[in-house]
Amino acid sequence: MKSKTKVFIDGREGTTGLxxxxxxxxxxxxxxxxxxxxxxxxxxAARREMIRGADVVFLCLPDxxxxxSVALAAEFPSVRIIDASTAHRTEPxxxxxxPELSPALRESIVNGSRVAVPGCHASGFVALVRPLxxxxxxxxxxxxxxxxxxxxxxxGKKMIAEYEAADRPLALSSPRQYALGQxxxxxKEMKAICGLxxxxxxxxxxxxxxxxxxxxxxxxRSQFSSDLGPEGLxxxxxxxxxxxxxxxxxxxxxEGFLAGNVLSxxxxxxxxxxxxxxxxxxxxxxDNLGKGASGAALQCLNLMTGAEETAGLQx
Length: 315
What we know:
Layout: E1 5-10, H1 15-24, E2 30-33, H2 44-53, E3 56-59, H3 63-73, E4 80-83, E5 95-96, H4 103-111, E6 114-116, H5 120-134, E7 145-151, H6 156-164, E8 176-177, H7 187-194, E9 201-207, E10 213-220, H8 229-241, E11 247-249, E12 269-275, E13 279-286, H9 290-305
């Protein structure tokens, strides 16, 4: 009988950590390690002991705390780490936790010991743009734009409490654009993972629904190195993502309205191409808490431990 995988979630009190914990506690192939004394959860010695006894450690922490945990784990080379923070997504020696992007990346996750979970907005942008750059269809120097609408759960416990308060400000009933200074923390990985020469113009928007998101990249015909059109772009995505379990390409169609919360509660991602031969709209729709966070983290755990890739996930 195969032994259980011992898992420690460092920072399980946050939105992503809680979601990972609630899923893993239902699984018979996982043994969860916990610091039972709440006052010791930030104690380095207590965390070190948990890391030492684990097979896999999830980091659901602010960036600096995640780096500290990686340092604590350095003396235990057999311990594998899945980091949900921004700290290591573009760092050498870390695999980017989006296995659908290439067979080589999938293999690096399966065999690796350091995996960085993609950011939620970045997941959609990378899923749309990287395949086009890698295929030589979109020049690496292209000036790109991206806007992304997300549910408020992406802002963590504080933002969730603000949106769900009985006396909340009227402004929270309207979509709100943020990161207006073009310094969003996902920009670095959006550029690096896609192989771009410059960061895109990025406009994230938080709206009054709990979870789900749509990431959109508008492109003009003149930006491509060849004349593809919507059907040609759809074929590029089909060749890469066809047969994948968590990423699917939608057939041609016009929904009229593209709702951001359709995949709330799901760990899947939908890729769609709309528009005409002159102006095309590329979209990735998924749950910011699913394929954009905990779902992606658990998918990586499954690959690293030899479990069924979709174990514990909602499709």
